[in-house]
Amino acid sequence: MARPTVSYAQRFEDLYLMRCFAAGSDGFYIDIGSGHPVYDNTSFAFYLKGWHGITVEPNPWLARLSRAVRPRDRHLEALVGATVGEAVFYLVNDFHGFSTMIVDVEGAEPDVLLNGDWQNYRPKVVVAEALAPYTLTPAWAAWEPFLAKHGYRYVWFDSLNRYYLAEEASELAHCFENAPASFDDDAFRFRSVKPALVDTAHPDHRLASLLAGSAMTRLPLLGRELVVELLTADIAAAALEAPAGADAIAGAIERLFGPDATLSREELRLPPGARLREVYAALVDSDQFRTACGRISASYAW
């Protein structure tokens, strides 16, 4: 049975672009505001075809993931805007001759598009998120006349993004003339799948199960720093570096061992003014944690 077509993008952007570039295996993209290297990512489908390019993502965690998952790309952990300098970056928990350029920078699209060198660098297709964040009001008037002046004409709107075609790539116009309004009947979006470990339909369920079982079996052998990083991955860096009061320490103990935990603050032997990160390190070093890891390991061993 043939595998269904998978779209890794938010609104099937990769499938619309694939109508233009399906035959190519050596293209180049620039993905500004690339986000997660896989989830809701427009360029990942092309990476799987053998393409490579430049991704720009200022979120340190997402940039780190991108470097690990997509080593062929050049990853820039930076902001792109109208001027050179420093800017305040608000971190949120969210997953967002070359051939295509994708711009998704949550409202800063004009800063990116109006300051590009469109004379010397000519992507065949430009895709820009065209609705303002949250309000979803049309935002393309800020850049569309500028792109038209530089030889890019509007060819498609997918309900979120507008697509622009370079005048020298006019042979690709037919790819949009009969494009479907949606691919819902022919493909599914990767964003709809459940976590690989619990979803038997996930394409990597078998591998996830193997890795999870192996990791749990060897849990007592994992390095202290790695275990602390895993346990605190969803805690903001600022919170981890802040001094931990009695409530924060009690909360960390309950988070790991439940409301009936018998481990006390005194047993952790924390230094005065210990940071929350140090609290978790002390918890990982405790007998209670070691025995818990032993029980978890034993449950996977046979």
Describe the protein:
The chain is an alpha/beta fold and 302 residues long. It has 13 helices and nine strands. A seven-stranded mixed sheet has the order 4-3-2-5-6-8-7. The chain has a two-stranded parallel ribbon with strand order 1-9. Helix 7 packs across helix 13, helix 8 packs across helix 12 and helix 10 runs parallel beside helix 12. The two termini are 35 Å apart. The mean pLDDT is 87.
Short structural description:
With 302 residues, this protein is of the alpha/beta class. It has 13 helices and 9 strands.
Total helical elements: 13
Q: What's the alpha carbon Rg, rounded to whole Å?
A: 24 Å
Low-confidence stretches: none
- Tell me the strand order in the biggest sheet: 4-3-2-5-6-8-7
* Biggest beta sheet summary: 7 strands, mixed
**Global mean pLDDT:** 87
Proportion in helices: 25-40%
Report the β-strand fraction as a percent range: 5-15%
Query: What class, by secondary structure content?
Result: alpha/beta
Task: Report the count of strand segments.
Answer: 9
End-to-end distance: 35 Å
Order of helices and strands: EHEHEHEEHEHEEHEHHHHHHH
- General shape: elongated
Secondary-structure map:
Layout: E1 5-7, H1 13-21, E2 28-32, H2 44-48, E3 52-56, H3 60-69, E4 74-76, E5 100-103, H4 109-113, E6 125-129, H5 144-149, E7 152-157, E8 161-166, H6 174-177, E9 187-189, H7 205-217, H8 224-231, H9 237-241, H10 246-257, H11 265-268, H12 276-284, H13 287-301
Parallel strand pairs: 1-9, 2-3, 2-5, 3-4, 5-6
Antiparallel strand pairs: 6-8, 7-8
Helix pairs in contact: 7-13, 8-12, 10-12
